[in-house]
């Protein structure tokens, strides 16, 4: 069925319930999935016990690829084996208050007349009255639902929407009181559960500027619904309860600050202990770093410079890539915005004359980093970077992704926990992005999935590829002459990428041997990946007069223009070179290994941009016979270009400068295909996750033993 308009989860569930005809209903969210082996077991349990509600186990499927059981699962194990009522096990109110972890008798739900309300936390006003009204509750303690936790979940973000939790709990009490005779013990347990939930949101950091208003409304709710004779609990929960009951916001602020101070003092004490164990040069380096960070903190107190932009490419390896193209176009169109480059110390000598720069990790660098309004980078800065309000971070990337990126990247030789920690650090850096440059719809889909952050995508094409569309025949001839290439020579550019699984560089091809076998009339240019310091070390020294190492040549785009054919493997050079509509040959003997170890978004062997060779003999034969430029490979290249190079029209950098630096309205390229293929593999879900009660844990902090004894409430594991 299709609704005329988006009614949220509550509206969708109400509509589905109205059409349902079965004895039971199960509300499964569209972005979660059901364990295939649970359906028969559920059916047997329903048939055998005829419960009003069947409670189900679930597993969290986190954004970083890890899974974990929810903290309340131990509670399922402690529930009675035979069907029971909520008053027999009052702690049932601490089970995740969602609709998808329960199979419900349909006539009970319709008889209670408790429809799902609009807005966020919509499952709460249904879950609690339902559990309290059910005459028979059964438990199936097995994983039935895989609950997908999106990193950018609505309920994990801040804002006024969390105010609705207070309103939903008011509706809970209206419906519970309408049930009639509910045992006092059950009412008290539900009330305490509400208090814990309300206070958790206060400490979650999600309310932003609405904290005080939320606290006031939550306090009023706690006072209005306090059961007669309710005994104040001991421990931290009791303190939080009394704060809400009092309505004293200043007292709540003092308590929160005190807890923060305690944690900071504890962290600093541990850090000081570790510091005292440092010796010699390490201590000196640490002190120097502290001084630089203090300088950075001071600079961040100064106003942003609206006419200052900081550029960086390839982790500071020089003047290159998309940031270079944007910088040069900015000098032309927005000269009032001063551009400064951040480079490594060893790359200083490669900087062109007249291009301002600062050396990474120096006081000068942190001064510019702190004050520049615009940050243009094709990677991330380190964890010490603090994004300032009002600054604009433009992430340009440095290639169309074939290999898996971000949260999709596999943990090669890395323990799972260590990999998860690394991903969380990566995501914290990616949260700094404001604008994300994309060269095609395929990349847009990959970036959205691989980096689940709140950025705006600019589908403008790749600025670094502008020159490939605008270069004149005269300019191309000039580049070739500068490389010493004769007008009639066929130029073959061999540009392999690095491999994470290799201990050292091994391109699986001897370029000197390739050049000798092709013979006179051919020139093989070889270019190592920049990770290998500009030297092609694959097979020893150059021995062929037809081979030339261009690893240190400053512009890879000029090498593309000079080349008649590109040979590459998994490198993103294939996507850039496709703009020229010249033959591309994939030489990838280790393609199956790369697929398994690194992981890829599509099968390059099945969808190549041209000839795909797995052996050196196949490569040489393809180049000799002309198979590399046949009707078949031309058709493959055309399909490849439609998918990946359709919007690179030579004006990408101009679009970025006009949109970002000049604030002009920019029209996206017209050449975008009407249908772009998303990456193969796991589906990419663009739909924004509707908010329910699913992201509402019972408590934020693990309880101490003393607190657990004083208030033995199930602890929820939070991310």
Automatic annotation (TrEMBL):
Residues 698-712 have a biased composition (Basic and acidic residues). It is found in: Cell membrane. Residues 2-109 form the Glycosyltransferase 2-like domain. GO terms for cellular component: plasma membrane. Pfam families: Glycos_transf_2, Glyphos_transf. Keywords: Cell membrane, Membrane, Teichoic acid biosynthesis, Transferase. It is a peripheral membrane protein. Residues 685-697 have a biased composition (Acidic residues). Residues 669-719 are annotated as: Disordered. GO terms for biological process: teichoic acid biosynthetic process. It comes from the Bacteria. CDD domains: Glyco_tranf_GTA_type. GO terms for molecular function: CDP-glycerol glycerophosphotransferase activity. Belongs to the CDP-glycerol glycerophosphotransferase family. This is Glycosyl transferase. It comes from Actinocatenispora thailandica.
